Amino acid sequence: MVIKTDLCSFSEWRIYPGHGRRFVAKDGRLFYYLNQKSRAFSARKIKSQEIQWTVAWRRLNKKIKTDEGAKKRRIRNLKVQRAIVGISLEEIRRRRKEDEKTRKAQAEQAAREIKDRKQKQIDAQKTQRKGVTSTQKVAQKAETKAAQKAAAKTAGKQKGKK
Predict the structure, then answer these.
(1) Domains of the chain, start order
(2) Where is the composition biased (Polar residues) (predicted)?
(3) Calpha distance 143→109 (Å, rounded)
């Protein structure tokens, strides 16, 4: 339940029901005072900004947070999607729309392709090693035989000369 309160004409404090006094001036203006102290200061024509316990003084000396004017409009940051290096914006959007099943299927297929590629590389290396080793062995044997024959000829010529 909301209680209707008035504001003191001098101190600007809240006046709850059953408290305070009303004063009607000669010109018909209505003044509400919280207590006799406020009424006396007002009657003496003392400015409420000069007395420390009043709301006016607190506002003037920046002791109270005041809301002057309307609330400041907050500028909301808009999310802007940009393309990342290596992938276009359309590709990003397409991937977001995909469901999990298709993503898993694509990932499995990519994994299978990678395994197949690696297996092919391994097989190619094995066949290359086998082919290279047998041809190398044959070449090495031929080279050693040729070297032995050349060494025997040179050795025979040297014996004959002596």
Answers:
(1) 6-60 (2.30.170.20)
(2) 124-134
(3) 50
